[in-house]
Amino acid sequence: MRCLNCHAEGISSTNQYCPKCGAHLPALQQNLLPEQTRLKADTYEIEYALGRGGFGITYRAHHIGLEQPVAIKEYYPQELAHRHSNNGGLTVPQNKTEMYQRWLTRFLREGQILAKLNHPSLVRVQDLFEERNTAYLVMELLSGKTLGQELDEQPGKKLDPQRVREIITSLVSALAATHQGGVYHLDLKPDNILLTPEGRIVLIDFGAAKQESATLGPTRSTRAFTPDYAPPELIGNQAIGPESDIFELGMLLHQMLTGTLPPPALSRLIGEPWEPQLEEPWQGLVASALPLQKNQRPNNISEWWKPAASEVNSSGNMRSAKLPLPQPQVPPSVLKPQPTSASGTGKGAVDLRGYFILPDLKAQGIVRRFGRGAIRKVILLNQELAIVFAGGGTALFNLRSSEALWEIECFAYSGAVSLDGKRLALAGEQVIYLWDLTKGQFLRQIHGHTNSLYSVVFSPDGKFLASGSWDNTVRLWDAATGRELHQLLGHTKPVSSVAFSRDGKFLASGSVDKTVRLWDASTGRELRQLSGHTDWVRSVAFSPDGKFLVSGSEDKTVRLWDASTGRELRQLLGHTKPVSSVAFSPGGKFLASGSVDKTVRLWEAATGRELRQLLGHNSLVNSVAFSPDGKFLASASMDKTVRLWDAARGRELCQLSSHTKSVSSLAFNPDGKFLASGSEDNTVRLWDIAKGKELRQLSISMLCLESVAFSPDGKFLASGSEDNTVRLWDAATGMELRQLCGHTNRVNSVAFSPHSSKFLASGSEDNTVRLWGAANGKELRRLCGHTNRVNSVAFSPDGKFLASGSEDNTVRLWDIAKGKELHRLCGHTNRVNSVAFSPDGKFLASGSWDNTVRLWDTATGRELRRLCGHTNRVNSVAFSPDSKVLASGSEDNTVRLWEAMTGKQVRTFHRHTGSVSSVAFSPDLKYLASAGRDGVVRLWDVADLQI
Description:
Elements: H1 25-28, E1 38-39, E2 44-53, E3 56-63, E4 68-75, E5 82-83, E6 90-91, H2 97-116, E7 125-131, E8 134-140, E9 145-146, H3 147-153, H4 161-180, E10 183-184, E11 193-195, E12 201-203, E13 210-211, H5 232-235, H6 242-258, H7 265-269, H8 282-289, H9 301-311, H10 347-351, E14 354-357, H11 359-364, E15 366-370, E16 375-380, E17 385-390, E18 393-398, E19 403-409, E20 414-417, E21 423-428, E22 431-436, E23 441-446, E24 453-458, E25 464-469, E26 474-478, E27 484-488, E28 495-500, E29 506-511, E30 516-520, E31 526-530, E32 537-542, E33 548-553, E34 558-562, E35 568-572, E36 579-584, E37 590-595, E38 600-604, E39 610-614, E40 621-626, E41 632-637, E42 641-646, E43 651-657, E44 663-668, E45 674-679, E46 683-688, E47 693-699, E48 705-710, E49 716-721, E50 725-730, E51 736-741, E52 747-752, E53 759-764, E54 768-773, E55 779-784, E56 790-795, E57 801-806, E58 811-815, E59 820-825, E60 832-837, E61 843-848, E62 853-857, E63 863-867, E64 874-879, E65 885-890, E66 895-899, E67 905-909, E68 916-921, E69 927-932, ...
Parallel strand pairs: 14-19
Antiparallel strand pairs: 1-2, 2-3, 3-4, 4-8, 5-6, 7-8, 9-11, 10-13, 11-12, 15-70, 16-17, 17-18, 18-19, 20-21, 21-22, 22-23, 24-25, 25-26, 26-27, 28-29, 29-30, 30-31, 32-33, 33-34, 34-35, 36-37, 37-38, 38-39, 40-41, 41-42, 42-43, 44-45, 45-46, 46-47, 48-49, 49-50, 50-51, 52-53, 53-54, 54-55, ...
């Protein structure tokens, strides 16, 4: 018999468990497609199963017409689907359909990309099709033994260094090809490497692979991986990348050389010490591959292996452990100060101080924003000051101190500052907002576009504005009056970027239609069309003298054009993913480009030679900008940071950051002076509400934080995390006091018992609620009954009862003293994400992914009313301190306030640019805080609510 988990052969039919991996053998044989099952209109016939994982089953089969053996992988996520006994198709419960479809789309896309890769160390894909409510990937059938089997046959279970070099070189070559396509394997281990009789070294089983894609967001679904080899970010379901495969390859390299694996990442995270003890070059390679922090590892697998590939001799020894790569230097003399650029350095922008709010937002009651969210664009005024345009607003920052000198609360996709620094234009949705930066005064809204705006720019004299829109038009406006002067028609698809020449005579626009167009700014007449890009143009910029035009495109190239003739002069190649932003240095000698490949590159404009890469961002780079004197370069990224670079040396000088991922939980301290926000960036941040200032940051190892709660006396803070633990912190110092361990899956919610800090409750994806002694961290009680993940827990005001909401669509009410379930509240038709007691204890509110909020009688468990109005899932609910008002936050990007007694909707707060994940009232009922997946926390004034 064969183990379908580890592929061990020759197991006795009487064995219940695999002697090698311990898998339960009968369970692995369940729900397989029967032998002789035919697929794709009798094209293929199943013979028998070869292996299975959490997301699929691989079969040996044959092409009926060609009589050719093949391997077929069936998409079958066991947690999400069941095999139909009659037709062999898959059925998916309604509440798991979305997750199932998301992973199915990923399976198909990975198959499509792998099919395009013709590499000797990758299994060749021959077909891909959908039927039976799932998908099938047809691959060449390979024979041979796994690397794991070869290691088992060797003395000490290790290989000769030269053989190690051969294997790793093949794997690096294969992974470089998949990384180029945006696919990461994520399960590199000996059993997934096949050694064929013909000498091929083939990487197999992409069942854990993930494709990098803007259309597939983060998922809470469990990823398939092997814990002994996996990096922390994979275990923690965080953002992955080439660094993740490099970590696993480093684990594998150490195992092949020594016969032993380094300690798993989780063991090292909780304090197990380890340092590699190898000879060079292996010591340097393993050490650079295995840091626990992803950003401390190389992000290019070929560059990581390059020194070894070129310098290891036949005995496996390196002549020189480190080969410094040549770094072209830009002579400082060519970066001399230049005249002020159109980025704007006037006194208005520099001298303004304060916090300013768009009038219609002020009317809604917004008081303060914490965090900035995704950063769309940056304008560098000098080596210290930068204007940052972000999802949460626009601000002038001192990059050295990270201090916000002024902030404007006004959502914008893009923005521009006039050359004299006195005017600010913000482009958001279909509106341009114009501000006076000498006074922080809102001037006017400019309407006219019929779809979203993605670019806006002032003419050099500040008299005119140009805007590019998703309505396929460029429009010219009188900045003083807001009057539309010209509508420039010609683009056949959305306009993504516009730029004026320095003399203001010409306007360039880049579009999704793959063209750059040049216009006469005074008449709006199209002068010429620049064609050559093979995908949409994301950014355009004129050289300072107006002679040249540069464009960055989705086709991964930067192109330089002669502005007078429209002739393409050169292509700058090097980026491995779309180019999102381009900029000339003030003297015009250098070009900077930012890309989805997370790099900034500096180029010599005259030759197109790449001078250097600036590495550090861990997400796509949205914007690049030179300082007016050309000495510095700023870059803004979707990792929610701005980084300042020394342009001559390529050295990072400083960075501006706050939460770098979505904010999942909020809590006010008892006196309402401070707000804690917990984020998927592994931090809890404590904010001073009056000053809008971050006080301290609590970092939680490497794993995603799900929930935060203050103790009733405000002295302690509890957090629940994806590493299955509850942590207790000293709120005054930020010091971790203890970890409460016992849950076997991520902790989604934590709550302190009222009136004292004696007890702490936690709800987990292990389907349980647990009660802890906060003083000693001892588990007191385990409440079992939910049949799916527990997403939220809440104590009743008197501390006698506990409510829990679950993905089993129910709310349960528990007697804490007896550990007994009192009521099961049924009615929601999708997962319950949040529960909250009213302060008087009479009512319980629940928010669900069925888009409703429901109000329950706590004494009887009876549903009192259903609050409808949200157009998407409800993630969070909270009662006001007087029990009169109920707040709800939703994936429709809104916060809604309801009259608890009647269910009447009394107010809606807009302007989050992502789903709202948490809401909380301050104890004095003055404020409501809302946290969003956009990485921003907003504070709303609700003191005037009259209920």
